[in-house]
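ARCHIVE CARD
CATEGORY: sequence design from structure
SOURCE FIELD: tokenized fold
FIELD CONTENT:
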């Protein structure tokens, strides 16, 4: 089993890359949101589409945003992983220290509770991160990335055609 320092070293090298990817995905999500909003506004106000059509087109155009948001959330969990590992290491150190005998069973139960809560937090982060290595999910992410950029470009072209 690798020790905490080797995991921390690997994470310290990966975190700047994860941070940059997370920032670019967040910016793309904001662009998609603004583009879809502009397209819906143009379709509703200028082309006089019905509300049902506007909702349907908006929902379809926002599907890539959902996939990108899921990926962004997982990247944020990766960024929080070093703090979680440090907290768990501190909990383990505190659990190993000898305690006074008064109320020792109750104290041991609270120590175990702290360790289990830390393990639950790491498990939750693992389950949010684990699908990212699935090739199908990565393909869906790539498709969402491409469709998101296409949405942004098409909305800019439509806005230029309509207002220029």
């Amino acid at each position: 089993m690798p020790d905490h320092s080797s995991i921390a070293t690997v994470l310290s090298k990966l975190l700047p890359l994860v941070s940059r990817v997370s920032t670019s995905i967040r910016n793309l999500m904001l662009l998609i949101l603004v583009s879809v909003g502009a397209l819906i506004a143009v379709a509703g106000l200028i082309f006089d589409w019905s509300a049902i059509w506007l909702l349907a087109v908006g929902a379809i155009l926002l599907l890539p945003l959902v996939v990108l948001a899921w990926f962004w959330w997982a990247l944020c969990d990766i960024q929080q992983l070093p703090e979680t590992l440090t907290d768990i290491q501190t909990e383990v150190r505190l659990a190993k220290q000898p305690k006074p005998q008064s109320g020792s069973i109750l104290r041991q139960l609270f120590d175990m509770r702290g360790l289990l809560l830390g393990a639950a937090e790491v498990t939750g982060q693992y389950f949010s991160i684990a699908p990212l290595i699935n090739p199908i999910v990565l393909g869906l992410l790539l498709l969402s990335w491409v469709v998101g950029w296409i949405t942004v470009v098409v909305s800019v072209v439509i806005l230029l055609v309509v207002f220029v």
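CARD ANNOTATION: The mean pLDDT is 83. Residues 4-45 form the longest helix (42 residues).
SHELF: design records, drawer C
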